[in-house]
Amino acid sequence: MHTQQITGAFYGVAIGDALGVPVEFKTRDYLSSYPITDFTGYGSWNQPPGTFSDDSSLTFCTAESLLTGYHLSDMAERFVQWYQHGYWGAHHVVFDIGQTTRLSLQRVATGTSPLLSGGMEEFENGNGSLMRMMPVALYLAHEPDIHQRYRIVKEISGITHLHFRSVLACFIYVEYLRLLLTTPDPQTAYLQLQTTINHFLATQSFNPAEVKYFDRLLLQSVATTDRSQINSSGYVIHTLESAIWCLLTTTSYSECVLKAVNLGGDTDTTGAVAGALAGVCYGQSGIPATWIQQVARSKDIAALAHHFMTAINKPATGKS
């Protein structure tokens, strides 16, 4: 793991997010006629060009908390600070928050343990925890115990999203990011991911009906799926599939994130999740310099990435 990958991941999330913000909720047909090719402004949320959303804000809160080790309560409190005061917001305000995340953070704010605060119902499987998992993957890069990795991912996802489907989606994403750190070819890393996850699942007593939702990712090759069959809604499995599909079917950072955003629907989150994958894969030098300069809080992002690079050499241990 080197500096290029870390800074690429941090910028990768924010830039993919910012490309998608102005066209969130736009249809695929609309974006086929009016594709996103660069930063645009205003649109869906009336925000200036380069503005990132809750996806990046909560990612950066996660990273900042992990600077001093893994402490779940500290992380959850930073999320509350974002929700209530715009902490780590692109412009220090909150303009977008999912319902499951909002209700969960209200529980944390009123004293519920972050181990119990997340939504547990089947309808609470949006992508609101998946979108912020990039720093978790980097933090766990040198953690050899897959059971420990799963536990930490489950707890961090569970601050807002505690249903098994959301947790497993986050875990698959974290494991793929970890593999990309040492296996730069996305397809090779994807095959390794399938082997690793399927072996892990075989040792667990998870509900097979739930695991089956991941068959396209884990038993088939999502890369061969036709674009018409890739769904880009806010459902966690759709976001995970579409982000990985975008990485596997492109050859550069910009091609990957623009493909993700132009799928339509939940454009900012698909862009952010795909952007982290492509950022690790291609590094900061693979991201257009103009996007790095124009994204909101660019210097703050660079500083956080630098501090994070230093901090993650510590072992992945901590308390809830």
What does this structure look like?
With 320 residues, the chain is mostly helical. It has a single domain, classed as ADP-ribosylation/Crystallin J1 (ADP-ribosylglycohydrolase fold, Orthogonal Bundle). It is built from 16 helices and two strands. It has a two-stranded parallel ribbon. The longest helix has 19 residues, at 164-182. The radius of gyration is 18 Å and the shape is globular. The two termini are 27 Å apart. This is ADP-ribosylglycohydrolase family protein.
Overview in brief:
With 320 residues, the chain is an all-alpha fold. The protein contains 16 helices and two strands. The protein has one domain: ADP-ribosylglycohydrolase fold (Orthogonal Bundle).
| CA(first)-CA(last) distance | 27 Å
The count of strands amounts to 2
Q: Which ranges are low-confidence, i.e. pLDDT below 50, for 5 or more consecutive residues?
A: 316-320
CATH classification class = Mainly Alpha
| CA-based shape | globular
- Provide the CATH topology: ADP-ribosylglycohydrolase fold
CATH architecture: Orthogonal Bundle
Pfam families: ADP_ribosyl_GH (PF03747)
Family: Belongs to the ADP-ribosylglycohydrolase family.
InterPro entries: ADP-ribosylglycohydrolase (IPR050792), Ribosyl_crysJ1 (IPR005502), Ribosyl_crysJ1_sf (IPR036705)
Protein name: ADP-ribosylglycohydrolase family protein
